[in-house]
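Subject: sequence -> structure tokens, single chain

Hey, anyone have a minute? Need the predicted structure for the following. Not urgent.
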Amino acid sequence: MKKYILVLALTGGIVLSLVLGVFAVELVWEDIGRGKGDFSAVLISSDNPNIIFAAAINAVLKSRDAGQSWERVLSIGGRDQRVNSLLIDSKNKNSIYALSTSGLFLSLNQGKDWKRIFKGKNSLENQCLAAALSANAIFLGTKAGLFVSRDKGRSWHKETGKISSSQISSISIDIKKPDCIYVACSSGVFKTQDEGKTWERIFIAWPKEVNGEDDVFEEAMDEGDRSSEIWCIITDPINANNLYLGTNKGVYESRDNGLSWKALSDFGLFDRKIRFLLLSEVSSILAVARSGIFAYKNERWQELSIGLIAQEIRSLAMDKQGNLYAATEKGLFKSSPFNLGSNKRGNPVLFYCQGEPGINQVQEVAIRYAEVEPEKIKAWRKQAAKKALLPQVSIGIDRDTTDLWHWEGGSTTKINDDILRRGRDAIDWGISLRWNLSDFIWNNDQASIDVRSQLMVKLRNNILDEVTKVYFERIRVKMELDSLGLEERKKCFEKELRLKELTASLDALTGNYFSGNCGSKSSAIPQQPPPVRR
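Reply:
Had a minute. Here:
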């Protein structure tokens, strides 16, 4: 048993090292928490990146020198109290909000003085998890629903309807349309376009409610996706139509203000339970899972947290220089400048075809291997057209036997006189050449060639169809195999077996050309075709 575990661990380590070597971005992480321990949130001042706010157990810490030293600016009394999140007012940079398990706290002078502006009626309402500031209101999400204040926190009222009984996990406001607000909760995503007066659900997290108003709600996702728990929602500051959701099933994207949703590729995403999302200035999507930090580029995820010693990553922030800040249970870490370059969408098919023959090369070799290339019919037609130039040759031979035997006579003194003798053979022969001038206009062989051409086209199309299906099915299996975790050993084995089966099918169709050219720098078709099947 120990040997089996050791072999599995070594195999997993090799696979991970190969994958991470290709998809990991090397960042240098520095612990700037100075041994302060457990952190749950981090906030960077947009005016001065040296000013950092960090949420720790029972407290909010502030650094004025980029983490060289820290001071406690807020302490929360009580047992097992925690600051869950930090928020800064974009219109008033001196206003800092601290969302805690004991209510909502506000500082109007960058952390010097604090006051509690919200306290719930019970422990669930006290659990403040998310907040957002619109032009005229404060939206606060708790474990017991959504609360709104329209007088800067002096009074609060709880929203009614389905959103009132849901745990609010994230709130996001459209920068270009401040009245448009998105709320992610346990029952889905809600949207308001009138600053909270009316709400509509645009994403369902759970299966359809029986005999409810959502029976007619058409969802474009599988049953497994409907049960995804939603953790965060963000809007794209560059393109306000784009929304992103972090769920237990990965990241979802909407490009039409939430009317339709599509799951982003999870290739390279080792943990699909996304707890936090962040958009960089170049619109790169950064996702925080429990086990790592990932950046989305070219339809795949690249891990950024290699070298980050932490078991649980809770929050992420970025300054104007591109430095990342990660709040973890092991401390507060700062990375070297992060830059993935342009976020133009790439083609994952090209990535999976690297080092392998392209579909065009494989199709051409398969055609030549089966001897069904179009040039074969063209050669037959040319040869049939030249047939009229050649004559029909006839050779005839005839032998005359009328004078074959005769009597020798005329003398009585010679020997062998009056004897019947055999004469010489009389042989006639001739050669005749005949041309059929009608063959210059029409040759009967053309009809036979046409029939063979139709059969060859049908056979060629069948071969091309088979090669195309197998080729792209192989790519899909490779993508599915890369998306599986090491713990899914049975599925990995089945996908590996299917991959070998498809590779063998391509070799059978191309005379081992496909495997022979995998991994080579050039996938050009060889001058000599592979041997023909017999």
